[in-house]
């Protein structure tokens, strides 16, 4: 809630989300200084403030959008106002403590342990606290009651369902986590001496606590309870339920620092000041060295990189194909997906399916509250809708989605961004010749690889041109090949190019098997401006030494017609094995008329045919002509393949009729049947074009 209110003022950017923690972490320093100065003098206050300022643990969470830095600041405020109210009294001081306590309770559940520890110290030192203490705490509890009721409704299913399938940490593991994590942060050096040093510093802090008890005042008892009670309580809860997170201890860090500096300060003023002084100096040196390593790791070591959703989504934006979808493995990731995935351009689906389906995303975290059968059914449905999938993994312990995709799709990329994993899947190979739904015949050979079919999207300025390819293997390739796709404009100038291995390198061509079909898809970036006309999409295949596998070949012709397009739907069926369902035409702006005929192959043609397109004037005289064979000979066409034939004719005002048809090597034309009868060509009126 606090972060939501903050971002209403600060904005919705990442800086705004993190700036609250930055502000709270910074403000904690002067407030902590005042707290220690009230309890132990300026020297101890300065020492404690410096330790908190360089603590890698505190620095790390003072840069995150989580609320732990805010909770730490409010705990310091609650301790400071409580000590001042107990010492000096006054209604406004107790009110200040009550407000600080309410703010704590509305920020983080575990802060209740801090408030409990502070107030137990008050009860321990005072047989009967004054009326202000009772009123302030009663007010805090009363104000917290509505939130407590809401929290119970959310925590009850959380505790019931968030039974993560991992064992609770052992007491020894907790000791290691408490000491290393709290003292040196999450980016502590992995050197073997870190744990012994952390335990030595912990022992020194416990000694300081003993020295503090000997000369304890009310304020010092409060600080001692602040350090010990929450740590023990969280550890005991962790042994009961596996809900341990090192970041929970940030709220107790100021208490431990206060005990250490005040206890050692008390020892330095006693009879053993030389021994205590040597131990304090040694502890300071050890802490400084390891903290320096931890801070260095935090900022300079890539292996400690934070979760980088921004970069993961940048990869998807740059590489995602039109037929793909994003699956994120935990529903709780919806916040990252909704923020970083803005404008992603593909659907995002949360899996596994929660059980029950209406379970809150924040608690659908483990196989205990996930439906495996429903998840697999959903993946089966999605596989019929999308060709490829991006899988964003963060913490799913069941791995059902990942296992299903690993077994049903081809993994073509696997990258890590901190602890966030991004995997990319495409359809795997299939036996036989295979088909490409909606594809056009290709039939070009590139060494041992044959491009059987190709399917392209429409040209759009500044967008990526989706190109689907279907490869078949005529013989086992001995090399790993790469493919170069190049797009040439009507003046034969190259305007776009994309090079890379087929299947994005998921399976090198040297591992392809003869008799298998491999579907592939790429996205060719297009420039921001294109001239109207006919574009050639050309392919070349080459090996690592840039040796070509065959000659470059045109695999598709693409029209770009930004001007007004006219169309007709002849729905003509030929006797040769294909039908033409539509014809479109438009001027290319440079004296040419572009005609696009689209259709479908019903049966494999027995001959090779040549297309013709004739422009006739009002008297039936020929004023323009384009005769050419298709890119792929008609005798190699297969049923179900799509036809898109493009003609360029002179744009003349005399033309009123377009004749379309095909003829064989003897000149015999192919008959067509339409709703108006049969003829050896299609006749389309161009009037009004």
- Count of individual domains: 4
Mean pLDDT: 84
Beta percentage is 15-25%
Low-confidence stretches: 162-166
Helix fraction by DSSP (H/I, runs of at least 4): 40-55%
Main beta sheet: 7 strands, antiparallel
Q: What's the shape?
A: elongated
Number of strands: 27
Helix run count: 17
Question: Your description of this structure?
Answer:
The protein has 4 domains: about 15-145 and about 170-305, no CATH class; about 310-425; about 435-560, abc- transporter (atp binding component) like domain (Coagulation Factor XIII, Chain A, domain 1, Distorted Sandwich), CATH 2.70.50; about 565-685, Distorted Sandwich (Coagulation Factor XIII, Chain A, domain 1). The radius of gyration is 36 Å and the shape is elongated. α1 (about 1-10) crosses α2. The chain is built from 17 helices and 27 strands. The two termini are about 60 Å apart.
Give the key terms:
single chain, about 700 residues, alpha+beta, Coagulation Factor XIII, Chain A, domain 1, 4 domains, seven-stranded antiparallel sheet, five-stranded mixed sheet, 17 helices, 27 strands
Characterize this entry briefly:
It contains 17 helices and 27 strands. With 689 residues, it is α+β, with helices and mostly antiparallel strands.
């Amino acid at each position: 809630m606090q972060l939501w209110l903050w971002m209403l003022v600060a904005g919705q950017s990442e800086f705004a989300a993190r700036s609250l923690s930055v502000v709270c972490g910074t403000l904690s320093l002067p407030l902590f200084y005042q707290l220690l100065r009230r309890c132990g003098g300026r020297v101890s206050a300065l020492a404690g403030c410096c330790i908190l300022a360089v603590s890698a643990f505190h620095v790390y969470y003072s840069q995150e959008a989580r609320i732990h830095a805010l909770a730490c600041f409010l705990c310091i405020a609650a301790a400071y106002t409580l000590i001042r109210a107990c010492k000096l009294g006054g209604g406004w001081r107790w009110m200040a403590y009550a407000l600080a306590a309410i703010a704590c309770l509305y920020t983080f559940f575990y802060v209740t342990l801090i408030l409990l520890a502070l107030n137990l110290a008050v009860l321990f030192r005072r047989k009967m606290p004054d009326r202000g203490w009772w009123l302030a705490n009663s007010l805090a509890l009363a104000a917290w009651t509505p939130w407590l009721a809401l929290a119970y409704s959310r925590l009850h299913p959380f505790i019931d369902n968030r039974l993560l399938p991992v064992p609770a940490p052992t007491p020894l593991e907790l000791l290691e986590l408490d000491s290393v994590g709290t003292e040196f942060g999450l980016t502590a050096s992995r050197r073997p001496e870190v744990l012994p040093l952390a335990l030595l510093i912990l022992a020194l802090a416990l000694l300081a606590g003993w020295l503090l008890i000997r000369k304890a005042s009310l304020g010092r008892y409060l600080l001692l309870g602040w350090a010990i009670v929450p740590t023990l309580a969280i550890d005991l809860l962790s042994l009961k339920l596996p809900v341990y997170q090192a970041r929970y201890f940030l709220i107790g860090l100021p208490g431990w620092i206060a005990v250490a500096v005040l206890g050692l300060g008390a020892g330095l003023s006693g009879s053993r000041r030389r021994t205590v002084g040597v131990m304090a100096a040694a502890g300071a040196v050890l802490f400084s060295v390891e903290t320096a390593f931890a801070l260095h790791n935090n900022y300079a070591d890539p292996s400690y990189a934070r979760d980088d959703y921004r970069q993961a989504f940048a990869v998807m934006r740059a590489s995602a194909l039109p037929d793909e979808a994003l699956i994120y493995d935990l529903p709780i990731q919806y916040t990252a997906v909704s923020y970083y995935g803005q404008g992603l351009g593909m659907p995002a689906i949360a899996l596994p399916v929660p059980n029950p389906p209406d379970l809150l995303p924040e608690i659908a975290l483990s196989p205990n509250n996930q439906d495996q059968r429903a998840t697999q059914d959903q993946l089966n449905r999605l596989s019929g809708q999308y060709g490829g999938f991006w899988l964003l993994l963060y913490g799913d312990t069941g791995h059902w989605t990942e296992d299903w995709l690993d077994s049903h799709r081809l993994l073509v990329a696997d990258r890590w961004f901190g602890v966030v994993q991004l995997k990319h899947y495409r359809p795997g190979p299939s036996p036989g010749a295979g088909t490409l739904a909606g594809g056009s015949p290709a039939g070009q050979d590139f060494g041992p690889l044959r491009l059987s079919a190709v399917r392209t999207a429409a040209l759009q300025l500044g967008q990526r041109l989706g190109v689907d390819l279907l490869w078949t293997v005529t013989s086992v390739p001995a090399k790993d090949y790469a493919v170069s796709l190049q797009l040439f404009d009507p003046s034969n100038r190259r305007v776009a190019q994309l090079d890379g291995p087929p299947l994005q390198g998921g399976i090198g061509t040297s591992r392809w098997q003869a008799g298998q079909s491999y579907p592939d898809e790429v996205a060719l970036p297009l420039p921001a401006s294109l001239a109207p006309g006919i574009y050639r999409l050309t392919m070349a295949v080459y090996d690592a030494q840039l040796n070509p596998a065959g000659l470059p070949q045109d695999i598709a012709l693409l029209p770009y017609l930004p001007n007004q397009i006219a169309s007709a739907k002849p729905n003509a069926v030929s006797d040769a094995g294909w039908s033409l369902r539509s014809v479109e035409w438009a001027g290319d702006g440079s004296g040419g008329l572009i005609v696009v005929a689209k259709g479908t192959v019903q049966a494999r043609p027995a001959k090779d045919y040549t297309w013709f397109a004739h422009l006739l004037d009002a008297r039936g005289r020929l004023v323009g002509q384009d005769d050419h064979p298709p890119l792929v000979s008609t005798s190699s066409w297969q049923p179900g393949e799509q036809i898109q034939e493009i003609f360029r004719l002179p744009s003349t005002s005399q033309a009123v009729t377009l004749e379309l048809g095909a003829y064989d090597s003897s000149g015999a034309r192919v008959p067509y049947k339409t709703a108006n009868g049969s003829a050896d060509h299609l006749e389309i009126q161009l009037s009004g074009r």
